[in-house]
Write a structure and sequence with these properties.
The protein is built from 16 helices and no strands. With about 325 residues, it is mainly α.
Length: about 325
């Protein structure tokens, strides 16, 4: 960790269940659960409901373990950033050592239990994902390169592939496409956030693209990645994941997303600051809907398959 000082010894009251739950990054965990569930449902094999439930549960626990370990490592910069200063460790509700112990325990439990509930490949995949998020992204990339979120975003893209492997025990092109969707979506999603939260990353010394290359370059990168994402998204419509429902959703969402990216690209800093980055904030919210809509469409196509209605038949 860096030399930014923070205090975890002054407790503002006893930590409650909500504080420990917050340590697991529940909003991130919800994305992990949803995309992993879609990956499991899209797999071309039947899964016993109990096995499916256990698999998603332990993937969620693994996601929570990653969140706790990330908060343990990033407690110093979390204390500096307005967006994160009220998290359990910098606020003094939970000590860093507690977060470390909880994260390691949950990581071990999730990996072993997923391996037992589904198959050893899924357990190993989850272990690699936790390692990638905590060590590769949090400990190495995040504080060393503006490409942190580009490469590190892979950690958040693994869950649907883990869900698929939990069901099938193997990887094919479909889970790789789901991975790619989240992987390419992640940079414009986070760069939009960085545009209106740049001072946080400046203060914490995190080399986000907005800090190292400026907001103008970040706007160009958002447009480029959004265009690449549109190509990938529409191409996936003609894979084993796609079908008429998915294609309709992909066309609508990519038109909206591209329009938003063009608006961001055309913006200057005077106009952005004048309206408190309203366009950038709207794009950030749209990015969440974009991902939810795509994975919902993948799940609908999978649910329609047994009736001969999903896919291109």
């Amino acid at each position: 960790m860096s030399d930014i000082s923070y205090n975890t010894n002054i407790h503002e009251g006893e930590a409650g269940f909500g504080d420990y739950f917050a340590l697991l990054k529940p909003r991130v965990m919800s994305l992990v659960v949803f995309t992993a569930f879609v990956g499991l449902m899209a797999a071309p094999v039947g899964v016993h409901p109990l096995v499916g439930f256990a698999s998603i549960l332990f993937i969620a626990v693994g996601g929570g373990a990653s969140g706790a370990l990330n908060m343990w490592w990033d407690a110093d910069i979390d204390a500096v950033m307005r967006r994160t200063r009220n998290r359990p460790i910098p606020s003094g509700k939970i000590e860093a050592g507690e977060a470390l112990a909880l994260g390691l325990a949950l990581a071990a439990i999730s990996v072993v239990m997923l391996g037992l509930a589904s198959n050893v490949y899924a357990g190993a995949f989850l272990a690699f994902t936790i390692f990638f998020y905590v060590v590769v992204y949090s400990m190495w990339l995040k504080r060393s390169t503006p490409h942190n979120i580009v490469i590190g975003g892979a950690a958040g893209a693994f869950p649907p592939a883990i869900g698929w492997v939990a069901a099938t025990g193997s990887l094919t092109v479909e889970p790789l496409l789901m991975f790619a969707l989240i992987f390419i979506w992640t940079p414009p999603h986070f760069w939009a956030l960085a545009l209106f939260m740049r001072s946080d990353y400046d203060d914490a010394g995190v080399p986000m693209l907005t800090v190292t290359h400026g907001r103008r370059a970040t706007r160009v990168h958002i447009l480029a990645y959004t265009a690449l994402l549109a190509v990938l998204s529409l191409g996936a419509a003609f894979s084993g994941l796609g079908g008429p429902v998915y294609l309709a959703v992909a066309v609508v969402m990519n038109l909206l997303f591209l329009r938003g990216a063009v608006k961001i690209w055309r913006r200057d800093e005077v106009a952005s600051e004048a309206d408190d980055f309203a366009v950038e904030r709207k794009f950030f919210k749209l990015s969440l809907l974009y991902l939810f809509a795509h994975f919902s469409a993948i799940m609908v196509e999978a649910l329609l398959q047994p009736y001969g209605l999903g896919g291109w038949g």
